[in-house]
Amino acid sequence: MELENDLRKALDLRQFVVYYQPQINIQTGLVFGVEALVRWLHPERGLVSPGQFIPLAEETGLIAQISEWVLREACRQARQWQVEKSQYFKVSVNLSSSQFQQINLVDKVRDILRETGLHPQYLDLEITESIAMHNIDYVVSKLTQLEHLGVHISIDDFGTGFSSLSYLKKFPIHTLKIDRSFIQDITTDPDDASIVTAIRSMARSLNLDVVVEGVETIEQLEFLRTIECDKVQGFYYCKPVPAREFERLVVAGT
Ligand code: G
Ligand code: G
Ligand code: MN
Ligand code: NA
């Protein structure tokens, strides 16, 4: 209850901050994208993870405003890196399930792109399989409208949703983000290795990109290299960091 009251005031008090985690192409060694991950800087509790407050925001209906703020802030920052640093990263923003259900989602995205000056090809929207499975016809129509805007769509946490794979040919999506639970033991568990190899191969024949999440060790990275999973994200390279630190670590070094 107390947390709920605090959450209501958090936007006005500017307590949210977006962290960024680089996505690297291990073939070229270059950063091609960043995932935007929101945090709540609570005055007493410190840094509150979205895993804790997103569900509360969903319950209380505060999610719409918070999500809109994150989307705008991530687009603004990505555009600023282009203008000030000549760095053209694709920025990935997580869509919550209620955000995806919003009837004016497409208009909102269009308005924010216009307002921030970010070209749609640099925005990637991540939806989870469970969102995607909710109402197939609605999802196909929404994603098609977003695709017409020119933004990219990724399926987040891919492989954990128990969903029918038939949606992969119905939906206009570009990227599968393989869930980090498959990567954790990839060098010791032959089943995980097989699953990731199979997803890679399926994605290639469906003409989908793959990003592997949760890469933490050089051994995992070397294995991924052998199965030609070139796009990775994870603590091995960098944890999610504030924009200024991202600039120091990534932009300055490129
Ligand atoms: O970065 P972290 O591990 O704390 O993120 C925890 C979860 O919160 C992840 O599943 C992530 O996708 C989600 N998350 C992070 N930022 C956002 C956001 O802006 N919107 C939504 N809907 N989820 C987010
Ligand atoms: O659900 P989603 O994939 O959006 O969640 C992203 C979350 O994964 C972020 O909260 C981020 O902090 C976390 N994350 C990113 N890289 C790693 C990693 O290498 N290991 C672990 N354990 N978590 C990671
Ligand atoms: Mn994500
Ligand atoms: Na994920």
How would you characterize this protein structure?
- With 254 residues, the chain is of the alpha/beta class.
- The chain has a domain at 2-164 and 238-247: TIM Barrel (Alpha-Beta Barrel), CATH 3.20.20.
- It is built from eleven helices and ten strands.
- It has helices at 2-10, 50-60, 63-85, 97-101, 105-116, 129-132, 136-149, 167-170, 190-205, 218-226, 243-251; strands at residues 16-25, 30-42, 46-48, 90-94, 123-128, 152-158, 175-178, 209-212, 231-232, 241-242.
- Strand 1 (16-25) and strand 2 (30-42) form a beta hairpin.
- Helix 3 packs parallel to helix 5 and helix 5 runs parallel beside helix 7.
- The chain is globular, with a radius of gyration of 18 Å.
- The model has no long low-confidence stretch (mean pLDDT 94).
- It binds guanosine-5'-monophosphate (2 copies), manganese (II) ion and sodium ion.
User: Segments where pLDDT lies below 50 for 5+ residues?
Assistant: none
Measured by DSSP, the beta-strand proportion falls in: 15-25%
Tell me what the CATH architecture of the domain at 2-164 and 238-247 is.
Alpha-Beta Barrel
Distance between the termini: 46 Å
CATH topology label of the domain at 2-164 and 238-247: TIM Barrel
Order of helices and strands: HEEEHHEHHEHHEHEHEHEEH
- Looking at CATH, the homologous superfamily of the domain at 2-164 and 238-247 is EAL domain
Largest sheet: 10 strands, mixed
Organism: Tumebacillus permanentifrigoris
Protein name: PAS domain S-box-containing protein/diguanylate cyclase (GGDEF)-like protein
Domain EAL: 1-254
